[in-house]
Each structure stands twice: as C-alpha cells, then as structure tokens.
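May I ask you for just one protein sequence along with its backbone structure tokens in two labelled lines?

_____
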Amino acid sequence: MWKKAPLVSRGGKVEKEMKVTVLLENDVAKEGLTSAHGLSLYIESQEEKLLFDFGPDGTFLDNAKALGIHVEEVTKAFLSHGHQDHSGGLGAFLSVNDHAKVYIQEEAFLPHFSKQENGVLKDIGLPIAYKNHPQVEVVKEDLTVSPRLHLLSKISLAEMMPPGNETLYMEKDGELLPDDFHHEQNLLLEERGQYVLFTGCGHRGILNVLETLEEKKIEVAAVFGGFHVKKPSKINRDDTYVPRLAERLKERDTLYYTCHCTGLKMYQRLQETLRDQVVYTSTGEEITLV
C-alpha cells in the first residue's frame, strides 16, 4: 500500500509529493470545469511534469487553465492508445507546448473504428499526419523512457479481456479486423521505490497488465485509469465479470483510482468487493501520493 507519511530524503528534507490531477474525464467534480467522454491526466512527479492522454478535443486545456496548471511546462507526454477520446486533443497540446516529446505506439496510427448499434463503423482513429510531427516519438516495443519512466505494450496474457472490446475494429494491410490493441501502451512511473501504473482504457485487460508486471517482479502500488467495463457484452453477456474482476484485483495491495470507461455503475459494483481500495476520480480532482 502507498505509504501515508511523507518519505524523507537522506539529507533530512521531506521529498516532494507526487500529484495526479484529472484534467478531463466523463464526469466533473468541480464547478467551472467541463467534462467529456475521454481522459487526460496531469502528473507531477519528483522530477518531471507529465501528461497522459489528451481527451477528445482541447477541453482539457481549458480545465488546466482554470485549475492553474501550465500545460506548456509539461516535459513529456504519452498517448495510451489510438482512439479519439484519448487522442483528439493532441493537436491542441502541440499548439501550446513546443518542446515535450509525445510517445505514441506505431500501430496507433492505423485506422480505428467503433461499430455503432446500427452497424455503421465510426472513425475513431488518430490522424496519420501526426506521425511525422517533430515532437512525436514513435514507439514500437516496450520502452524505457528514463530510469523512472517505462512504457509497457507487450502483453501476452489474455485472461478476462474486457467485454466492450467486441465493438472495436482496426484496418491493417487493407483488411478490417477486430482491434487487437497492440497500439495500447501503459505508463509505469517509479517514485521513491514504488510503482504507479497509468492505463487509458485497459483494453488488454487490467489483470493481464498487472500480471505481466508481476512476472517482471514489479508490484504496483497504485493504478490510474479506466478498466473498460462500462458497457457489458451484447454477444456473450456475463453479469459475473465485474465481481470476478474485483475479486482478482483484491488479491493485491494496490490502490485503484479508476474513471472514464469503468463508469460509475460498474465502479459501484467493484467497490462492493474492493471497498476503500478503489476510488472513482472525476474532472478536477487532485490525488496526492506521499
């Protein structure tokens, strides 16, 4: 569990707290801010100011301004995957920040679609033009960005995949295929010997991500992001999925700060088992880890 008291450096000074601010999420926690279907997180670590995802448009910038956060000071930015509700604000970010590298998985630039209830495929992809932007760093494998920042995209496990994945597609080599989510990447941040995981939607399954890290002997103290359980499967409906997921998550001494594609209804079902181990975070909320 994350330590509740501030850690003290060897010199006797209290080290800087780590803070995560929700710049954008589906719901809003503070007056004067705007919510939207999407996600954007601002992370202040000991060493850097980071941005994880950009929401569907430039709304996250307006919220940041209202919260007194200067996005132009961000040193590194990360896109979790190539869907519009996470990538749509990339252009807005690049318009105000001219120096931060933006790390994006190569397959995020493939065409991506969501099948609507009427069967129509909606384009939810990332414009390929961004691939050649000078600030964009195209990632092909797992990547160590710095000694404390790591990107994890290679997830070989496929247990308890999120049911909502069934409506998502990609185009590869001219063929329309079910999305395999190889374009998804997770950010692992090491802070004072403990690890914090950031995941956009957890399309590869949050359990699979955690177990992949555990195979590497990494135990995660806190998780931020969506678990993609908001919409149950219409093909293979399973009302036991979320309670079973909660039981498996409870096996760890991990705090779960969930949001976005988890949805408030399914969050409440998770909370029945996880209790104070899981918290729902909305637009404007600040979470301090000390």
